[in-house]
Amino acid sequence: MSDQLTLHNTLTGREEIFVPLRAGECSFYTCGPTVYDFTHIGNFRSFLAADLLRRWLESPLCARTAPDRKPEAHAFGQGGYRVRHVMNITDVGHMTDDSAADGAGEDKMEAARKRLAEAKKAGTLPPGVDVDPSDPLGVADYYRAAFVEDARTLSLKVVLDADRDPALLPRATDHIRHMLALILELIERHHAYVDPAGVVYFDTQSFPDYGRLSGNTLEKIRSGAGGRVAATVQASKKHPADFMLWKHDPTHLMRWDPMRVFADAGDAERAELCRKHALKEGYPGWHIECSAMARAILDHDEIDLHSGGEDNIFPHHECEIAQSRCATGKQHFARYWFHPRFLMVNAEKMSKSKGTFFTVRDLLGKGFSPAAIRLELIKTHYRSNANFTEQGLKDSMRMVARWRAFRAKAESIASNDASDPQVEERFARALNDDLNISGALGIINAWINDTPSPTRADGAILDRFDGVLGVLACADEGAPAQSSDGPSDAEIDALLRQRAEARKAKNFAESDRIRDQLAAMNIVITDGPNGATWSRKAAL
RNA sequence: GGCCGAGUACCCAAGUGGACCAAGGGAACGGAUUGCAAAUCCGUCAUUCGCGGGUUCGAAUCCCGCCUCGGCCUCCA
What we know:
With 540 residues, this protein is an alpha/beta fold. It is built from 21 helices and 15 strands. Strands 4-3-9-10 form a 4-stranded parallel sheet, sandwiched between helices. The protein has a 4-stranded antiparallel sheet with strand order 5-6-7-8, with helices on one face.
């Protein structure tokens, strides 16, 4: 428990008090999805953890908790940090098999193209979708649009914000020039070199801190090289850990000519540098985009927060740090590194063959609400392996229903007196403790139990909690239309009228028959003093 | 093999040295309510924290060993 926000920082392996570089502001970069396929719930758990952190930073409750920071908190307006949060979309065609780190294996975009082409031929593309599988950018856009739709369903704020400011959701392919500029800078500063085949490598030995994030050392990496990287490739590197920044490849699916990139932008100076260093047509390595975009869009050499799945720690984020710090000369790239752990499904690693790579649309199709999906994916501490199950999803649905009922009841008592003035502070202390979400949920539920007659002020408190959790805010109508095979509202209402007649006549056999009939269609009816109401139940 | 993280009730999960003979949610069970249900409300539900040692007046919490699960060690959120 802490009066101030503490976060576990992967860089130091410790929990640290969060102090941003610029008072009241926070720059935050999240490694976003690759768009070669649908984004699954494991990806979303990681993005939602970042979203929760971002919402907490922005919450008035966050800054309000520390007594010694109250005057400063007022300077933030309503409290909370002004967060600039960027999440990238990786749409450059990288290799399925980077073991030859520089170009063996099938291109992932190529694989996606084939998959889509087959789906189109088989007529299994969703209705209304028109995608040209021969166009890699079109394929990327198709999956990007699907991602944005799912992210919106789950109220991922960075995606919602991108409606207003598209720069917050940058595509890698829109920033090739920034990547090349960074690569040139690294070459000029002797942190990168070009091999005879035109591959640009980062020189890891030029950066003594390489390995600090992951606890690796160059020695360990060298000894652990274990034959996974082809000997011919290794031969052209100065050190096995050196990684690719740019690959010359005139046959690649997505490729750019560095000189033309700068010439088209009117940057003759850099075009000349490309000639000088023999940068030729090809594509960027898979670490450089984040370094380039974070710097270009967040507009600072050092940022506050950087998040990504735990698998990104090495090598991806290690390499980002190396590139960025060598280019900027700063002590840090990001000051705090935030790494949510993997999501398991049914106590096992998610697996394609077991069919456990669920997407958000899969779950919506089963009748689960966006609010329940969001709650289920955020309710386990971000540094634990969460276990995703349908049972858990049902549990979450029940919790959402209780909150909704509380919220509805709170409308009826017009009082400005909160039933428990301390509850917000308890909630804040839990979240300040490295985002202790389970503790925070426990506090909300206990408070709801202890508050049988909530006032309007209590409703406002729940709204403030939900501003952080983003659960009730997930509008159910944000979901794609429910499967169309259910009965229409009019049909249901007609059956309910019949049942009301039967009950009036004490014909309970007929009344129960109608209730069973509706239940079979996943319609749950609730009898109350003012007649019956109904709701659609998740089909499990 | 190296480096990390985790193991708390039927399930999910908080708690990291005394206020814990362990929050909260779900399930289950008993009761109220209901024509019967659903929903709601009331109550019950871990003398115990993966296993074995140790430190301490005191341990789920610290130390040692073991077992199991997960991540990384150039695809992966």
